[in-house]
Amino acid sequence: MAALVAAAIALAVITVGGIGKNLVYYWGPAEIQAAGPRAVGATIRLGGLVVPDSVRYGEGASGLEFDVSDGKTRVHVKSRGVPPQMFREGIGVVVEGTITSAGSFESQRLMVSHNNEYRAPGDPYKADVKRLISTTRGLEGEAVGESR
Amino acid sequence: MTGELGRTLILAGLLLATVGSLAGFAVGRRPSPLGWAWTRRLAYGYGAAMAAANLVMVYALLAHDFSVSYVAHVGSRQVPTWVTVTSLWSSLEGSILFWGLVLGAYVAAASYLNRDSHPEYMPFAVGVWLACGAFFSFLLAGPAQPFLTLPQPPPDGPGPNPLLQNHVLMVIHPPFLYLGYVGMTIPFGLASAALIAGRLGHDFVRPLRTWLLLPWIFQTVAIVLGGWWAYEVLGWGGYWAWDPVENASLLPWLTATAALHSAILTERKGILKGWTTTLVMATFLLTILGTFMTRSGVFNSVHSFTQSAIGPTILVFLAAAMVFSVALLALRVDLLVPEGRIEDPRSRDAMFLLNNLLFVLLTFTVLIGTVFPLLVEALRGVQMSVGRPYFDRMAVPIGTALLFLMGVGPALPWGRATGQQARAALAAPLAGAAALALLGLALGVRHPWTLLTLAFGGYTAQVTLSELWLPVRQRMKAHGEGLGRALIETERRGRRRVGAYVVHAGAVLVIIAIAVSSTLGTSKEVVLRQGESTKLGAYTLTFVTTDTVNEPHRTSLVARVAVSRNGVELGTLSPRMNQYENQREAIGTPAVRTSLTEDLYLSIMNVDPERGTLGLLALVNPMVGWIWIATAVMALGGVVALLPPPRAREGRLRAAPPAPVADYGAVETSR
After folding, report:
1. HEC-encoded secondary structure of B161-190
2. What are the tens digits of pLDDT across the range B473-521?
3. Which of B27, B320, B353, B582 is the most buried (most CB within 10 A)?
4. A45, A82, A109, A110: best mutation site toward chain B, by most B Cβ within 10 Å?
5. Are residues B598 and B527 in the same domain?
């Protein structure tokens, strides 16, 4: 019985520890700014709208850069990989990656929101970032690199 | 008119299930042959009402009767007929209606086939099944009504979610999943009934095992079909992402697999009665939890149809079922005493116990990782998800250990073994382990977990194949039978045993294929101009051109990519982007070239008409095809283990009281 309890406690410690190291936080630009240096290194899903005129394409598959905004705060994003078909200025996106100490967001994955609510022509910034992140589909799967 | 008919049938189903459930419990308490006959008739009636309601819905869908709310919600004149029929389960209300059909069929079949077996508790089982039936009919009559009549029917509907009409696998995957998921209600009812009646003798697990194995086979196939669908449709190149919805289908499978194993110990030795019952009940509760997670919109995915009022109702049902299960187990704890014990840690019996601990451990880690974000959001309002590395880090060691155990257990004898016997039995399969690990090394495998998986896989494969082969060889020697005759006779005389080892053989292959495909692949993302080539491993991919293909329900942009391998032309692969009628978003279909050794997987990221470029995701995935093949092997083994033994069947023809189908006759003989 004592062994069972010990095993259960050990299991709990391992799982909670394992979860704690692998959490992916859903944040908006404002929260990233508010967290400042504390956000560096954590895996974050950042949601927001692609700021018009901020998109710069690089050579081939890499080097895409753009700003993500919630209407007030902007975060600069450097994205690896080929952007999806729907990607364009003014559209809602979710990027997953980490903040560097220089303050720019290094994205491993870029997803375009399929949610119609995000494209209301009247006030495109009236976006609930959290809802954007949690309703964007297709973040399944792993980041794609040169090899696995 | 159609709507009214549908609503009437659902109310009839609700009435029949409620009355039948009450009748079942009453007859269980005060047995009467007449009451028992009427309880069963009510169960058949419930099944018939659900079948009729589903037929009415299919008719409404095919007739494009947009006055029926569900048809207006998912129907469309533009989609092909097969999509129209499968729309039955493509959205919330229809999927609950389909649930009712499957549950009705299971309840009617189980009531009929068990009409003469275990009369001391079977009425209670029907009572529990029909109580579940009443709940799902209530959902259809209240929070998830599919048959509302629209006063102003629209001229056309939007059609189902394009992801669901993008591949034929969507025709097969959901029915299998429902046959697995819903079927877990039957063993839950049997376990509850045995507890209520207090009939927990040696053989109470026999019908339990049969009715657990049947949905288990469906569930096994359904999980893999879901992965296959994701692989062929979602376009990110993999088949499993530890998505909450995938986990929801895996969790009850894990506990059901554990229960199938512990039931063997209960049947042989009369031990682990409470444990087996707990696992069966947990399996059912996990299916309801999974239904809550996928149907209530708490997780967003292709399966979570809408934010709906159905969530809280399912949560109440889950809580009630949980209280019911825990209370029953607590009330009967005095009857769950073991009739024997495990005598030796070096025995097969002890390995069964270890197998169960590992399965439960895996269930817990997956469950915690799945519900953790929900708990955090509920308690602290912080949104997050648990990343893949958590699941991989927990599941890989446990899965690898289970693979090894699948070899160690059957290698050891039942009961007890001397140290020398155990060492001899465990040493022989090391040859298989070394062979497969060396083969991996020779082929260039350096990943430590993959090498370990190959070694354990070789070990278990040798044990499994020799367990299958030995009795055949003995028959050939002892009776002078030819190979074919000996194979048939061995199967006939030990179906459960043969089936179990065939399932094990399939499982070994699945685990190896998963390990190899997830560690030894390569991938890249490139942007190609027309005529430009890129290299991936031995493959050269050349972007030839793009075409547009028009179909009634969609317009597709197709990229033609010429493929050659080591200079040999292999033809053209055509990944596509599909724009569906009435849908804003374009959805890709990857192109997969499958071979026995590896898949070449191409998926369009984007096409830029101005610059004439193609953004391409290309992957080489080794051994993925073997996952599908090995799953078919597992299902085949399950079916063999489910077939009634020949003696019982002959007895059934001759004897006056038919032998219950669930009765399997003799337990397999020990070695």
Report:
1. CHHHHCCCHHHHHHHHHHHHHHHHHHHHHH
2. 999 999 888 999 999 999 998 999 999 999 999 999 999 999 999 999 9
3. B27
4. A82
5. yes
Using a CB–CB cutoff of 8 Å, tell me whether B59 touches chain A.
no
Q: Is A140 on the interface with B (CB under 8 A)?
A: yes
Residue among B361, B372, B607 whose CB faces A11 most closely: B361
Residues B226 and B119 in one domain: no
CB contact under 8 A, A24 and B387: yes
Which among B122, B138, B165 is the end of a domain? B165
Quick one: B326 and B452 in the same domain? no
DSSP code, position A116: G
B544 and B424 within one domain: no
In a domain, B122, yes or no: yes
Total domain count for chain B?
Answer: 4
**Planar angle of CA A52, A55, A60, nearest 5 degrees:** 155
Same domain, B635 and B565: no
Query: CA of A101, closest CA in chain B: separation in Å?
Result: 22
Q: Using a CB-CB distance cutoff of 8 angstroms, which residues of chain B are in contact with residue A45? A: 385
The CA distance from A97 to the nearest CA of chain B, in Å, is 12
Q: Strand, coil or helix: what is B559?
A: strand
Report the distance separating Cα A6 and Cα A14, nearest Å.
12
B554 domain residue, yes or no: yes
Closest Cβ opposite residue A140 in set B236, B364, B523: B236
Contact at CB, B526 and A60, closer than 8 angstroms: yes
Cα distances (angstroms) measured from residue A25 to each of A22, A47, B369, B382, B467:
10, 11, 14, 8, 49
Selecting from B237, B364, B385 the residue whose C-beta is nearest the C-beta of A11 gives B364
ipTM reported for the complex surpasses 0.95: no
Same domain membership, residue B200 and residue B100 = no
Q: Are residues B20 and B125 in the same domain?
A: yes
| Residue B665 binned pLDDT confidence (cut-offs 50, 70, 90) | very low
Domains in chain A, CATH or no CATH each: 23-135 (2.40.50.140)
pLDDT in tens, B328-338: 999 999 888 88
Q: Give Rg (Cα) of chain B.
A: 27
Same domain, B147 and B189: no
In a domain, B382, yes or no: no
Cα–Cα distance, B156 to B165 (Å, whole number): 17
**pLDDT tens digits, A16-72:** 778 888 888 888 888 888 888 888 888 888 888 899 888 888 776 667 899 998 888
- Give the domain extent around B453: 399-512+631-645
